[in-house]
């Protein structure tokens, strides 16, 4: 029973682990990871090219969508009804516009040597 509890706790804690950000992942794998490892982790690049010296350049773009603005309608305050007037609606505070969050686009340029090992990378806005 104790082993079962330990396994459940380990599974729970591992599911809560924060995934590495892309720049951290790349920094930790400079001169270590191959094109195959990158392809397995990130999929196929958006574009690929070969430089004159035989190095290969892969470009990934990561687009995150923002959230649109939304309208918040506060509930009517107590005692704000129109009284005895026929067809009166409750009066409340005016609606509020809650701003959304903007989307973003990050571009990762990876450079591999002729033996297909990651040698450098850069991160920029798209």
Structural summary, described in words:
- With 126 residues, this protein is α+β, with helices and mostly antiparallel strands.
- It has helices at residues 2-15, 22-29, 35-42; strands spanning 47-50, 56-64, 70-72, 96-98, 104-112, 118-125.
- The two termini are 53 Å apart.
- The protein has a domain at 21-69 and 94-117.
- Strands 1-2-5-6 form a 4-stranded antiparallel beta sheet, with helices on one face.
- The chain has 3 helices and 6 strands.
Jot down its keywords.
126 residues; two-stranded antiparallel ribbon; four-stranded antiparallel beta sheet
Shape: elongated
Our Rg estimate from Cα atoms comes to: 27 Å
Structural class, by secondary structure, is alpha+beta
Poorly predicted segments: 13-18
Number of helices: 3
Percent in strands: 25-35%
Q: What sequence of helices (H) and strands (E) makes up the elements? A: HHHEEEEEE
Please estimate the helix content. 10-25%
Q: Tell me the number of strands.
A: 6
User: What average pLDDT do the residues reach?
Assistant: 81
Biggest sheet strand line-up: 1-2-5-6
Biggest β-sheet strands, sense, barrel: 4 strands, antiparallel
Distance between the termini: 53 Å
């Amino acid at each position: 029973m104790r082993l079962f509890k330990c396994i459940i706790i380990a599974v729970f804690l591992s599911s809560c682990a924060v995934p590495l950000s892309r720049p951290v992942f790349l920094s930790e794998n400079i001169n270590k990871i191959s094109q195959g490892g990158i392809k397995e982790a990130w999929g196929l690049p958006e574009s690929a090219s070969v430089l004159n010296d035989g190095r290969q350049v892969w470009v990934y773009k990561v687009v995150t969508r923002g959230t649109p603005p939304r309208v918040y309608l506060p509930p009517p305050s107590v005692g704000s009804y129109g009284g005895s007037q026929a067809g009166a609606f409750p009066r409340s505070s005016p609606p509020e516009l809650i701003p959304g969050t903007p989307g973003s686009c990050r571009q990762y340029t990876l450079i591999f040597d002729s033996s297909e090992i990651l040698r450098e990378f850069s991160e920029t806005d798209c």
